[in-house]
Specification:
By secondary structure, the chain is mainly alpha-helical. The chain has one domain. 47% of the residues lie in helices and 10% in strands. It has 16 helices and 16 strands. Strand 6 and strand 7 form a beta hairpin. Helix 5 packs across helix 6.
Length: 414
């Protein structure tokens, strides 16, 4: 268990409340002009909100907006490729289906860090040729259905066995993802390392991940189902379970004593009189994975409550929207020309301000579109969406649609 023996002040960082609280502290410092790298222009929040409303109208045109999750990336060209895949596997019971969806979501999200501008996945089944997140989503779905992650291969494909993940080799993953010198995928080794660590962590925690002779990430579903009270599970419990039981997967994650804290930055202006001094939890991929596990739980009959306890995602499309609309302004414009360390103060500041600002942008979007928090929760604003607005603006402003800041990512944070 990742938290065993850890300092309680550090364990508290493994919650969405800690993410929101500490990111908002940096936002308040920004409002007072006390941050090193960014100045804030809160009047530009309306412009950011208007960009998202345009995306809402373009993408949904009055239709209900689903929550932001990996499952949306399996809906391509008017087809739901996940549902199509299931037609060949009729008869799975509700719990078995939920475990399969957990397996797929976990592996797919871990493979999803920025692909770079040049990689493409060519899908024989649909004829689609896609890059970036959509291409990685489609690729992961096809690899899952082909049994790449199953010990039984194509005979029983819809599962991810821990020992198969733990033995994953970069050359095999590169071949499956169609990447090579003429189709380069950024940070392939980092992605492969994440899958190996996922397998190793699952094997090391049989009490959570082993059932009926199989060890797989998907058994986290059974752990969460057991935590539901009267059929209801708070969304924060999903994130806490992910950070508690899968915290050891992050090769670049912050190690704090006995605790592997994952996506936690450091900022000198955020002070505490305990072991958490200067630490800024962000948990981007873990929170996106938490959002992506809500639907499998709900379809298994578990009511997930208070999804807005989770925060916005500290990634470069959401953060890019805020820079490109002028909400965030670099104090030194020369920083745009440099590649930045994800653990550096500038990137931590950018990401934390992004989390704080997304709550404010969501409020603007609701006001401009006539929604309230019930009809358009934060997950729906992200989907509607801040992410796609950030990508669209980037494509308009820069060749190749690159974000406004370059990050030297190893494939495990973004």
């Amino acid at each position: 268990m990742n938290v065993a023996g850890a300092d309680p002040a550090l364990i508290a960082l493994l919650t969405p409340e800690a993410v929101r609280e500490r990111c908002n502290e940096l936002w308040q410092l920004g409002l007072r002009g006390e941050l090193e790298h960014f100045a804030l222009d809160v009047e530009r929040l309306d412009a950011a909100g208007a960009c998202v409303v345009q995306e809402l109208q373009r993408n949904y045109a009055g239709a209900p907006v689903p929550g932001h999750s990996r499952w949306r990336h399996f809906e391509l060209g008017g087809r739901d490729l996940w549902r199509e895949l299931l037609h060949a596997h009729d008869g799975m019971d509700r719990d078995a289906l939920a475990r399969a969806r957990f397996d797929l979501a976990i592996v797919s999200v871990l493979l999803d860090a920025g692909a770079g501008p040049d990689w493409r996945y060519r899908d024989a089944g649909s004829g689609l040729v896609l890059g970036r997140s959509e291409g990685l989503a489609l690729a992961s779905l096809r690899l899952f259905h082909a049994g790449l992650f199953s010990a039984a291969g194509a005979r029983d494909p819809l599962r991810c066995d821990a020992r198969v993940l733990a033995a994953m080799a970069p050359v095999a993953l590169a071949r499956a993802l169609q990447c090579g010198a003429d189709n380069p995928l950024a940070a392939l080794d980092g992605r492969c390392e994440l899958l190996r660590r996922l397998g190793e962590v699952a094997l090391a925690c049989p009490g959570v991940f082993s059932r009926d002779g199989h060890t797989r990430p998907g058994h986290l579903y059974d752990h969460l189902r057991a935590r539901a009270v009267d059929g209801a599970l708070p969304a924060r419990e999903i994130l806490i379970a992910l950070l508690t039981w899968l915290g050891g997967i992050w090769p670049a994650g912050r190690q704090l004593g006995t605790l592997r804290a994952g996506d936690v930055g450091q900022h000198p202006a955020l002070r505490r009189a305990d072991a958490s001094d200067t630490l800024v939890p962000l948990h981007k991929l873990s929170q996106w994975l938490a959002y992506s596990l809500i639907e499998p739980l709900q379809e298994a009959g578990i009511r997930v409550t208070d999804a807005d306890a989770l925060t916005g995602l500290a990634e470069y499309r959401n953060g890019g929207l805020l820079i490109d609309t002028g909400v965030l302004r670099l104090r030194d414009e020369a920083q745009r020309a440099r590649a930045h360390d994800p653990a550096g103060t500038l990137v931590v500041e950018w990401r934390a301000l992004t989390v704080a600002a997304l709550d404010l942008v969501a409020a603007r979007v609701r006001a401009l579109s006539g929604h309230d928090a019930e009809s358009l929760p934060l997950a729906a604003v992200l989907q509607a969406g801040t992410w796609s607005a950030g990508r669209r603006l980037a494509a308009q402003l820069r060749a190749g649609g690159e974000p406004p800041l370059r990050i030297a990512s190893d494939g495990t944070l973004f």
